[in-house]
Amino acid sequence: ASYLAEQGHRRIAFIHGERTLVTQKRIRGFNRAMQEYGIKTPPEYMVEARYHNADSVRKATAALLDLEEPPTAIMFPDDFSFIGGQTEILERGLSIPDDISVCGYDGINLSKILNPQLTTWYQNADKIGKESVRKLVESIEGTSVAEQIMVSGEFLSGNSVRKWESD
User: In 3-state terms, what secondary structure has residue 113?
Assistant: First the structure.
């Protein structure tokens, strides 16, 4: 969200996943970034869809593009479901990133081979899984208590976001 704002976008939509703890944290982060940049997000720019479901995200993308004042940038809940959003955008004759900027979340290999290459946040799912199993085993053995696992990610700058000159 911060990256999109830094690129000049002020009409930023967020298609988020189902209401889970992870989704709640992502929404808080999005809202915090918008507040830091003084961006007011209309409620219709916050759309729920299902994680890893291209069809659900395609419908959410259609709803955003049908708005009287559509966003200039859309954040997608995950890289895989972005495919649904991309399909909707391209079928309307719009160009990524010339007409609309997009970014995802996960950093899966697919995001690197899409055209344009998806700008995304890489989360190290392998490391998250290994750390979770290690903590679970420690908890079962009584050598530690359950706690939140923190694994750092990495911003992957693809070419699906362009600098927005005016709004």
Answer: helix
